[in-house]
């Protein structure tokens, strides 16, 4: 089983039946192989966040199947879906959402403690992740004491803390300068290559998208090759 994610016939309409109805996704078919890093490009408002939220089990489709690690998630109850999300998916957002009162290290340790990992193992894994993206020297700094690029690299480490199968990123380098965005992305590719992680990364940055394994475009509610 080499598919990390498969979406079949996904449809989503906000406010159905009302004058404000927005038909955002009109039959999305998409497969991500294990270890693949795929870019999703689309104009603003095309539905990238909606698609990522559905793929990451934060939202449910009106129709269609979301298959993660071989299981159809649309058939699960809320509790099983929450557990699957916690165990299988990591999210990175445009603005990192790190916890401001905790250090970089603690931000990467806490999700692991919530997952039941012993503190010593969690700290060792967190340090290893921070090291891989070059922020280990800042491990004991709080987010406000880090640069934007460092914060975003910590956010990637946090998303990867529980070793998810699938990383979903919504404009993860959107607020970074081109050099920093390149560095963050290179670190992600390295991590992906060494752990078999699959990633779907929404971005407006076409140069960055071109460096990924594949580029998909979201157009009129459907996914097509770019
Ligand atoms: N909760 C909601 N209720 C109603 N409409 C919504 C809701 N969420 C999103 N939409 C609409 O759905 C469309 C797609 O939104 P979405 O956030 O998925 O787009 P996006 O491609 O991620 O945009 P951006 O690149 O600007 O972040 C937009 O037209 C938006 O106005």
From TrEMBL:
Q: Does the keyword Mitochondrion apply?
A: no
Name of this protein: ABC transporter ATP-binding protein
Domain of life where this protein originates: Bacteria
Single GO MF annotation: ATP binding
ABC transporter domain segment(s): 5-226
Q: Which UniProt keywords apply?
A: ATP-binding, Nucleotide-binding, Transport
- Which residues lie in coiled coils? none
Q: Which organism is it from?
A: Rubellimicrobium aerolatum
The Swiss-Prot or TrEMBL record describes its family as follows: Belongs to the ABC transporter superfamily.
């Amino acid at each position: 089983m080499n598919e990390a994610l498969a979406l079949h016939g996904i449809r989503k309409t906000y406010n159905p039946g009302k004058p404000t109805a927005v038909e955002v996704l009109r039959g999305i078919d998409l497969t991500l192989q294990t270890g693949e890093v795929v870019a999703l490009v689309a104009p603003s408002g095309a539905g990238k966040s909606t698609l990522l939220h559905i793929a990451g089990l934060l939202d449910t489709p009106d129709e269609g199947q979301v298959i993660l690690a071989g299981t159809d998630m649309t058939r699960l109850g809320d509790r099983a879906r929450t557990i699957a999300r916690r165990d299988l998916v990591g999210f990175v957002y445009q603005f990192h959402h790190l916890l401001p009162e905790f250090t970089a290290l603690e931000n990467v340790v806490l999700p692991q403690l919530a997952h039941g990992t012993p503190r010593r193992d969690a700290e060792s894994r967190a340090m290893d992740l921070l090291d891989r993206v070059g922020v280990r020297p800042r491990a004991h700094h709080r987010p406000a004491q880090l640069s934007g690029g460092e914060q975003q690299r910590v956010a990637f480490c946090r998303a990867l803390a529980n070793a998810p199968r699938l990383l979903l990123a919504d404009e993860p380098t959107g607020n970074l300068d081109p050099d920093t965005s390149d560095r963050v992305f290179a670190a992600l590719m390295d991590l992906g290559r060494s752990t078999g992680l699959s990633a779907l990364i929404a971005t407006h940055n076409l140069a960055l998208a071109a460096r990924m394994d594949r580029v998909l475009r979201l157009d009129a509610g459907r996914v097509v090759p770019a």
